[in-house]
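Researcher: Sequence recovery benchmark, item below. Answer with residues only.
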């Protein structure tokens, strides 16, 4: 099954802390909705921090509608 990446951006001086905290909420959401095989991480950039979650395509509507990511992308296989 194809993999998707969802991204949430956080801005300001507390952005790294907020993005890291958001990952805890992603864990809770995935446990509550039996999303398995996902992974997540935070990427820090000069103007923002981005929380990213990668999961199977079957969870597209659930994640998109409930968590409203800023953007998403399909992960291309090597």
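Model:
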């Amino acid at each position: 099954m194809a993999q998707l990446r969802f991204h949430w951006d956080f801005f300001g001086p507390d952005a790294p802390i907020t993005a890291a905290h958001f990952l805890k909420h992603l864990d809770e959401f995935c446990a509550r909705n039996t999303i398995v095989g996902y992974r997540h991480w935070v990427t820090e950039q000069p103007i923002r921090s981005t929380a990213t979650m990668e999961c199977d395509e079957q969870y597209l509507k659930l994640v998109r509608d409930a968590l409203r990511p800023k953007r998403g992308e399909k992960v291309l296989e090597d």
